[in-house]
Amino acid sequence: MTGEDEVEVFLNSVFVRVKSWLKEADGSEVHLDETPSDIRRQVRLSLPLEGEGLEGALEGIDDFLLHSVRTHHSNFMNPLWGGFSASAFAGEVISAVAQSSMYTFQLAPIATLVEQEIISRMSEIIGFSDGNGVLTTGGSNGNMLGLLCARHSHYPIGMKTGVDGRNLVMYVSAESHYSALMAANVIGIGHDNVVKVSTDEDGRMNCNRLEEEIEITLTEGKTPLCIIATSGTTVRGAFDPIAEIAEIANRNGIWLHVDAAWGGACLFSNTHAELMRGVELADSICWDAHKMMGVPLICSAFIIKNPRILRQTCNHTRAAHYLFHSNTEDLDLGHMSLQCGRRIDALKLWLAWKEKGDAGWAKLVDGYVELAEYLEKLVVDEPSLELMSTRMWANVCFRYNPSSSERNSEIDLNLLNSKLRDELSATKQFLISRSNIAEDVILRPVIANPGVSLEVLDKLVSEIVRIGDELIAAD
């Protein structure tokens, strides 16, 4: 067999396994609920001294798929993503085949134009008429890039002289993503200068408290640098009031960045776009297509109203004479990125967008929220379940609470719900998240998987109630 024949047989074998993996999903377990020791006993993880050929690679593929979580399973509702997109999957494969890097137009000509088209369309949807941006390694990176742009806008000479961040302050919701702390650490602000603004009963940033915190900062002689408003918090799916926050930011000369990693897709929906009212007033935004839009990880956009600031923030490229040349300066996306080598993430989103169009994305968003509304109603109608937060988006936060009877009034509900989630996971039939709202342990299914249906949600609630009742009976 020639080398070409061997490769063809290998690729055919790979795709047989891919198709089998996809077909098996709903007739199989969501995950195996294994320990690291379980996997080590069954898989030859050590790397060989002598190559095992493509047969060794196929064995590795078989082992990997067997021991992976089936995130495309209809009962998978754990993180803010899930499911399978055939068109986006094709984009992943073709991107790997057309191996290149996104720093220059010369090396990635059509990929550059594809990414520019995506960023242009997202800017238009957001309301940034002259906006631009770049795909990044995720929402965490996008939030950090927003903070860097805020710092550069405030103190541009700092790129050369360095910046003492001890007097710079940023403001985030008390329920914001932890990447805000990571960004503060990386750019030298420090965790102590991250002000976590309290939220209202729905989990949205309290604007009155934000103004008070800004006043405290000024009184202390420090400089308010950036406000990060969250559109779709990780636990509750809450949307901070952007329009009101933007007015405060503008009045005080503070950069406003919107973390829309989870909630950005609401902008496609005529029904739900109101959740991000005022987003066009922000200075920058991050938006993950790999979350609700269902594109494979990683696919995340950072978009800025004033592209000049982004180019200045990423001005390190001036030293790279071996890559960048003046005749393609306006085309080379490396001038707007913190990365040098960068994979082609735009193709999978472009292909998925060609498949669905704006109308298809809107239908997807509306469908997920309708399913979340249905789950919310199931929870409210079930006497032993308690809704723990209002629902704005596709997150449904609740807990099992049988404490209406006198016998159950002394139950430790946090311990009970922690055990319940562990037992649910051990069935291998469902995978949902456990989280906290304040001091309360909650269950948090998220609808971001096209396989989820009304029947799946009925079964989920029945299973949670069954396990909870059994835990109470056994106590």
How is the topology of this model organized?
Elements: H1 3-24, H2 36-42, H3 53-66, E1 76-77, H4 86-97, H5 109-126, E2 132-136, H6 139-154, H7 158-161, E3 168-173, H8 179-186, E4 194-197, H9 207-219, E5 223-230, H10 242-252, E6 255-259, E7 284-288, E8 300-304, H11 307-313, H12 346-381, E9 385-387, E10 398-400, H13 413-426, E11 431-437, E12 440-444, H14 454-474
Parallel strand pairs: 1-11, 3-4, 3-5, 5-6, 6-7
Antiparallel strand pairs: 2-8, 7-8, 9-10, 11-12
Helix pairs in contact: 1-3, 4-12, 5-12, 6-8, 6-11, 12-14, 13-14
Overall average pLDDT: 93
Distance, first to last CA: 65 Å
Number of domains: 3
Order of helices and strands: HHHEHHEHHEHEHEHEEEHHEEHEEH
Query: Strand fraction band?
Result: 5-15%
Report the biggest beta sheet as strand number plus sense, adding barrel if it closes: 7 strands, mixed
Radius of gyration: 24 Å
Could you estimate the helical fraction of the residues in percent? 40-55%
CATH architectural designation of the largest domain: 3-Layer(aba) Sandwich
Number of strands: 12
Q: Which overall shape is indicated by the principal axes computed on the Cα atoms?
A: globular
